[in-house]
Amino acid sequence: MQFNHFSIIDKSFDQELSDLASLGFKFDTSSTAKVNLKNWLLTAPIAMTSLAATDQETISDFLDSETPLTWNIFYAISLQLLDFVANFDFQLAEAITFANAINLPLVDLSTKTSAKQLISAIYLLMNSRRQTGMTLVEHWVSEGLLPLDNHYHFFNDKSLATFDTSQLIREVVYVESSVDTQNRGEYDLVKVEIIRPLFDGKLPAIMTASPYHFGTNVKANDDKLHHMNVELVEKPLDRLAISESTLTLPEYPATEIPLVDNNQATEHFTHTWTYSLNDYFLARGFASIYVASVGTRDSDGFQTSGDYQQIAGVTAVIDWLNGRARAFTNRQKTHILTADWANGHVAMTGKSYLGTLAYGAATTGVAGLDIILAEAGITNWYDYYRENGLVRSPGGYPGEDLDVLAELTYSRNLDAADYLVNNSAYQKQLADMSQALDRTSGDYNAYWHARNYLPHVDKVKADILIVHGLQDFNVTPSHAFNFWHTLPEHVTKHAFLHQGSHIYMNNWQSIDFSETINAYFSAKLLARDLTLDLPPVIWQKNNIAQSFERLPEFGGHDIEVLPLGFAGELDQFENHYPAETFEQYSKNFQTFKADLFEDKANAAIIDIHLPETLQINGQIVLDLRLKLNDTKGMLSAQVLDFGSKKRLTDVSTLLEPKTIDRGRNFMLDDLRDLTLVDKPYQVVTKGFMNLQNRQQLTEINSVIADEWFRVELRLQPTIYDFEAGDTLRLVLYSTDFEHTVRDNREVSYTVNLEKSHLYLPKTKKEGHKI
To answer: Measuring CA to CA, which residue among 467, 461, 250, 262 is closest to residue 356?
Structure first.
């Protein structure tokens, strides 16, 4: 295994002493390093009898002997404290060699083991991760090093788990939003669940907005799925004009409603879904807030699916936390209550739709939202269900569209009374939605523009932390890439780009992700100095297990041009499949993908052997000269790293169940990570296009049968290392049984390889570290 530490903050020696003293560790620089080591170990919550110092001495024998302390002995002891097993995981006599191999943070080993150097080494060690997924200091705190006193304690500028999670307050409030999505003549109420520790003061809040939180309607979702086996439609020539839409908020008078006695919530709850990263922060003095917004169970309104009305249902909670909106004790609005426990500082967290609403909230510029941690979020809903004028399903979900997702998340229908009163009007709105999203043409229109957050990034005030998997073809990396590049220069931004698919990374063994976010949130939400030195991009290498690098940018500026063929060279592929094959692929798109990548499906395959190491960073651009014997068509393209070798899994592997303590014997989490396995190939990127939209998204052009034309297709952005001798496989085809409509017409495509190229954005491998 390998450690990757990004949360460790450099401190002066005096600051190190102060931090250690706050945990009860006293040092005397006038004593020897060995004496200081002994005093530290005697104070620590460990079983001294289980440790060895050398091949000949237990730790007790060593501390009482005349054997001098060396760095190898210190790190032999340290590795055992980090949960590595001597004589099996590593050899005691070769502790430093092993420490280097796992990338353990080390002091300068060329210096003598003086008391001062030893204390700094101890400080660094306590900030290091154990094999089982927690830093040493956090593990010791969870074992009782500090009392549960419901007060803040910091070590290396990170809040420690000293808030008693057995005394958490769990309450429900109903926040008054600024929208009326049913046109009832009153503002929609939004149900909010709050979990907060006891504290004699004001707490920051970490909010996760999830339309799934109060339940989902899976049956309605499945019944709404669209048929994919349809013919591609030829579109009339047009230029699409999209006008900017603005959300007009109603203005209703506020009735006088009394404050509830003692300003205490009257509705409470027990069990609910929680995000483990939020649980981690609960024990460290941060409230957790969960909101599902309008159109969900126990809230008012209709499911408006990604527009700024839904966003307003989220930002209303931030307004309430800052005293700018009202909340009620119940849906009958009999009493109001204020967030007198909140300090007004809010972060948003969560993956997928959860990260989407965080992006959307940030683009409103709402005061009090200091930072978002958007994980695999959507930044433009058109790019989730469409691509370049083509209806495209997100990876793994053929036939889904935004009206299908609306059915899934309109959880008000799960309550019989709500169904009786509101379903008829909701179904009319849903029918309007299905019409407006236009599956016939796949074109960008006003409906999609109202769900595009990118035009509003100039309003962003919050710091932006992005987490995205480069193997995520559900919410594709373009969402993170486009938001990253659209943000104004003054906005602080950082990205964690991993090699996984649509997954969380907060419980991985190899990276101190939770601790890094702790350092950031502790500063931004508790009005402390941000001392964390976080690079712009933290990128997980694709060809080495548990290896992350610092990069200066997401998107390289150098371009390498690769020709696809020689003079006069053509290639061809067909669109049509025999009925039996078409039915087989339609029933199981995984079978189609396996055949496609191994040159057994209808496709043009171009293999390019790379003589040198190459790091792709950004969007590969495919420049093709193409013709087809029809007046309508679509182009699909994928780039593979082809050839059998070990590659990372795109979903995390369980390494150890329930070994990470999120507080103090509180919400145990699994230890996971991406692991290396044998693979015949790896998808690097992909892209899709309706050939009538080949010039630009809002322009519909003709396709003239048997005439050559130029196509420029930008593929999904990525960062990927190819080694010298690797094979880059380009796959060109039409129908994709996972993503596109399944058009089985008899159409032939011809590619002029001589006049076609790949444009690869790159950073030179030897020069990309910072």
So the answer is: 467
219 within domain boundaries: no
The Cα 692–Cα 236 span in angstroms is 9
Residues 6+ apart with CB under 8 A from 683: 471, 473, 597, 638, 639, 640
Q: Is the pLDDT of residue 81 over 90?
A: yes
| Helices vs strands, H then E, count in the chain | 19, 33
- Measured distance CA(68)–CA(66) in Å, rounded: 6
Residue 612 lies in a domain: yes
Share of the chain above pLDDT 90, in %: 96
The answer to whether position 161 is within a domain reads no
| pLDDT reported for residue 99 | 98
Question: What separation, in Å, do the N-terminal and C-terminal C-alpha atoms of the chain show?
Answer: 23
Q: Which of 145, 166, 182 is the last residue of a domain?
A: 145
User: Is the residue at 350 inside a domain?
Assistant: no
H or E element in which residue 19 lies: helix 13-22
Q: Are 720 and 616 in contact (CB under 8 A)?
A: yes
Cα separation, 770 vs 767, whole angstroms: 8
CA–CA distance, 117 with 424 (Å, rounded to integer): 73
Of the candidates 214, 247, 226, 230, the residue with the CA atom closest to the CA atom of residue 363: 247
Length of the chain: 770
Residue 630 phi/psi, 5-degree rounding, is: -155, 175
The per-residue pLDDT for 767 is: 41
Span 600-648, pLDDT tens digits: 999 999 999 999 999 999 999 999 999 999 999 999 999 999 999 999 9
Structure tokens at 400: 């889904």
Q: How many domains does the chain have?
A: 2
Considering only CA atoms, give the Rg of the chain: 29
CA distance 284 to 137: 13
pLDDT digits (tens, 9 = 90+) for 230-272: 999 999 999 998 988 788 999 999 899 999 999 999 999 998 9
The pair phi, psi for residue 700, each rounded to 5°, is -105, 120
Whether the per-residue pLDDT at 37 is higher than 80: the answer is yes
**Alpha carbon distance 158, 371 (integer Å):** 16
Q: What is the DSSP string of 481-523?
A: HHHHHHS-TTS-EEEEEES-SS---TTBSSB-HHHHHHHHHHH
Residue 768: pLDDT band by 50, 70, 90 thresholds?
A: very low
The catalytic residues are: 352, 472, 502
Mean pLDDT of the chain: 96
Residue 355 pLDDT more than 60? yes
HSE of 620 in the Cβ direction (CA atoms, 13 Å)? 26
Percentages (nearest 5) of helix, strand, coil residues in the chain: 25, 25, 45
| CATH at residue 697 | 2.60.120.260
pTM: 0.96
Q: Which domain holds residue 90?
A: 13-145
Where are any strands of DSSP class E within 263-413?
A: 267-268, 287-291, 327-328, 336-337, 342-348, 369-375, 386-387, 390-391
Three-state DSSP state, 73: helix
Looking at residue 545, the DSSP 8-state letter turns out to be T
**Digit-coded pLDDT (tens) for 148-185:** 999 999 999 999 999 999 999 999 999 999 999 999 99
